[in-house]
């Protein structure tokens, strides 16, 4: 179990991570989502003890990372994709880490095989393409065969094929019972494979929970209504406080009232309906909407980051 | 701690530049020592002390300082420090492991260097009919041993400076400019009674026979060690407390 409690990190005047609390449940694949600059990497560095939080704490299985008895066997980390010495070979890089974790030579061959870099192990990973670097980074994370993986943007710079490969591998690692905590600035990259999401924007928590919940909660969900008495319905809905617009096919797009409420209103007012459908937002739309709002939360009181400005009115 | 030491040893030996600095340091300093022995003009007052000084050329120390600096700054430059500290989050272990490895490498490098430079320079001086230092002389052995200890401390001092400054260019500049420019200037400006306490003047006193205007063996060693310890303490404080 990964747990962040009130994590806060400030660089100079800038608050990069602001009172961030969340939990990653054991055995789940959790996406850590936020736009670039949201504080994902800083949060991950605090989780593994590289950066010291200004307030709050991060624990893994109840302990601060540096207090773990055998960190490499408990947590696999990919934090920087291109952190290699210019002349040390990939195999020597693995040997150096294996020694630190008292891990066997056989395991080095295993992880190289797993990410398909056995034939490239004799040269420095500094010369690898970004895709190869990410695969090699994953090999490093898997060296201790850990039950928890913390990976910062492992899909960054991969081509679509590479992303699919990475997603599949991460999913299968989660299916083996590992907790996989993966950051990405693109929700769509992880939405299909992640169980849960932790969404942040500007260092604030925006949402946690299952991917489906996150989308359902989004204000972008709307109801599409077709009716021969469109103008009258529109007037009534506006009277209810809903946000109504007319699309180019002449149908109403209603936000702020669900299908049930609209159906009831129409029935009571004797308005004929031809279509009444809830339109789910795409994941990316939900994500963009949620993170765009985080700017406004900062200028407001910011006491309830999960509600939208519309909901607060 | 054993794991970290093994890891740091693999880290040290798998970087070609380290091996080049060690071998290069030995070869270059040997060349300088032999050249000194071959060309030095020794007057009638020449003693075994002046002879010994051609063997214990301080240049090796500068190479070892740079080697030490790089053990930290290279990790910051390539971003591998984060990888290192993820594998071994107990920073104090990483810090001491690096310093121990560097000190051992410094000492062994110096042993190899002296094993060649001492007989070679003495043979050259002997050939020229000049006075030589004898290994059987207790004080000569003490000076040679002293140089080995100075090299061990020097490599560790370099590492501490690297951990403190993190930038290769700045740290290398400091460890070269300090002994070669700043101390030389101070030594020429200050009275000997003061300048003999400067750290690298003290280090030099350790590797030679007792000489006027220099501290004695032990006082010199203590001064150099104390100076280095201050850097090590500052470096350890920064390394364990600040963000990686």
Descriptive overview:
The complex is a heterodimer of chains A (313) and B (244). By secondary structure, chain A is α/β, with parallel strands linked by helices. Chain A folds into 2 domains: 2-213, Rossmann fold (3-Layer(aba) Sandwich), CATH 3.40.50.300; 222-279, Alpha-Beta Plaits (2-Layer Sandwich), CATH 3.30.70. Chain A has 12 helices and 13 strands. A 6-stranded mixed beta sheet of chain A has the order 5-6-7-3-8-9, sandwiched between helices. The radius of gyration of chain A is 24 Å and the shape is elongated. In chain A, 45% of the residues are buried. With 244 residues, chain B is mainly α. Chain B has one domain. Chain B has 11 helices and no strands. Chain B has helices spanning 2-13, 16-39, 48-55, 59-78, 80-87, 91-127, 138-165, 168-189, 192-195, 199-206, 217-241. In chain B, α2 runs parallel beside α6 (91-127) and α4 packs antiparallel against α8. The A-B interface holds A 45, 48-52, 65-66, 68, 71-72, 77, 79-80, 82-89, 92-93, 95-97, 99-102, 126, 140 and B 3-4, 6-7, 9-11, 14-17, 74, 78-80, 82-91, 241-244.
Contiguous uncertain segments of 5+ residues of chain A: 295-313
Mean pLDDT of chain B: 91
Count of runs of 4 or more consecutive helical residues of chain B = 11
Strands in their spatial order, largest beta sheet of chain A: 5-6-7-3-8-9
The ordered string of helix (H) and strand (E) elements of chain B is HHHHHHHHHHH
The quaternary organization reads as heterodimer
Quick one: how many beta strands of chain B? 0
CATH superfamily of the largest domain in chain A: P-loop containing nucleotide triphosphate hydrolases
**What is the count of β-strands of chain A?**
13
Mean pLDDT of chain A: 84
CATH topology grouping of the largest domain in chain A: Rossmann fold
Summed up, the domain count of chain A is 2
How many discrete structural domains of chain B?
1
The biggest beta sheet of chain A, please?
Answer: 6 strands, mixed
For the termini of chain B, the CA-CA separation is 20 Å
- Rg of chain A, rounded, reads 24 Å
Give the strand content of chain B: under 5%
**Major sheet size, sense and barrel closure of chain B:** none
So what's the overall shape of chain B? globular
Q: Counting H and I runs of at least 4 residues, what is the number of helices of chain A?
A: 12
Unreliable stretches of chain B (pLDDT < 50, length at least 5) are none
């Amino acid at each position: 179990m990964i747990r962040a409690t009130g994590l806060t990190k400030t660089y100079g005047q800038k608050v990069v991570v602001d009172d961030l609390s969340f939990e990653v449940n054991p055995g789940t694949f959790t996406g850590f989502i936020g736009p670039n600059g949201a504080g994902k990497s800083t949060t991950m560095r605090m989780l593994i003890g590289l950066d010291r939080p200004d307030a709050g704490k991060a624990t893994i299985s109840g302990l601060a990372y540096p207090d773990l008895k055998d960190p490499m066997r408990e947590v696999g980390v990919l934090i920087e994709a291109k952190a290699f010495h210019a002349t040390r070979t990939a195999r020597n890089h693995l040997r150096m880490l294996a020694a630190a974790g008292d891990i066997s030579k056989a395991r080095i061959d295993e992880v190289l095989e797993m990410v398909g870099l056995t034939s490239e192990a004799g040269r420095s990973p500094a010369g690898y393409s970004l895709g190869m670097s990410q695969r090699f980074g994953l090999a490093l994370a898997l060296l201790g065969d850990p039950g928890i993986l913390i990976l910062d943007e492992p899909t960054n710079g991969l081509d679509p094929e590479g992303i699919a490969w990475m997603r599949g591998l991460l999913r299968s690692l989660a299916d083996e019972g590992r907790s996989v905590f993966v950051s990405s600035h693109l929700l769509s990259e992880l939405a299909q494979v992640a169980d849960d999401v932790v969404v942040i924007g500007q260092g604030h928590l925006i949402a946690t929970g299952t991917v489906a919940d996150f989308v359902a909660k989004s204000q972008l969900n709307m109801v599409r209504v077709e009716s021969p008495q469109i103008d009258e319905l529109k007037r009534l809905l506006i009277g209810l406080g809903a946000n109504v617009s007319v699309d180019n096919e002449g149908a109403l797009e209603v936000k702020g009232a669900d299908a049930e409420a609209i159906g009831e209103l129409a029935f009571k007012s004797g308005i004929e309906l031809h279509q009444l459908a809830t339109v789910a937002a795409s994941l990316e739309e939900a994500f963009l909407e949620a993170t765009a709002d985080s700017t406004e939360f900062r200028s407001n009181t910011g006491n309830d980051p999960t509600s939208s400005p519309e909901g607060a009115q | 701690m054993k794991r970290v030491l093994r890891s740091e040893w693999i880290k040290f030996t798998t970087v070609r530049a380290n091996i080049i600095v060690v071998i290069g340091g030995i070869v270059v300093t040997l060349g300088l020592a032999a050249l000194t022995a071959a060309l030095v003009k020794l007057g009638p007052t020449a003693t075994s002390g002046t002879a010994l000084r051609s063997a214990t050329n301080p240049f090796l120390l500068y190479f070892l300082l740079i080697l030490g600096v790089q053990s930290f700054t290279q990790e910051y430059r390539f971003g591998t420090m984060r990888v290192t500290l993820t594998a071994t989050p107990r920073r104090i272990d990483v810090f001491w492991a690096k310093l121990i490895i560097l000190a051992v490498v410094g000492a062994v490098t110096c042993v190899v260097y002296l094993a060649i430079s001492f007989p070679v320079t003495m043979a050259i001086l002997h050939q020229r009919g000049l006075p030589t230092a004898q290994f059987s002389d207790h004080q000569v052995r003490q000076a040679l041993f002293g140089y080995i200890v100075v090299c061990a401390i020097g490599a560790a001092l370099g590492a501490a400076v690297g951990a403190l400054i993190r930038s290769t260019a700045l740290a290398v500049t400091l460890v070269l400019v300090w002994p070669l420019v700043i101390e030389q200037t101070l030594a020429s400006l200050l009275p000997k009674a003061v300048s003999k306490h400067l750290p690298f003047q003290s280090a030099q006193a350790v590797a030679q026979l007792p000489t006027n205007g220099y501290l004695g063996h032990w006082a010199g060693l203590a001064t150099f060690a104390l100076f280095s310890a201050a850097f090590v303490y500052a470096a350890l404080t920064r390394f364990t407390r600040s963000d990686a």
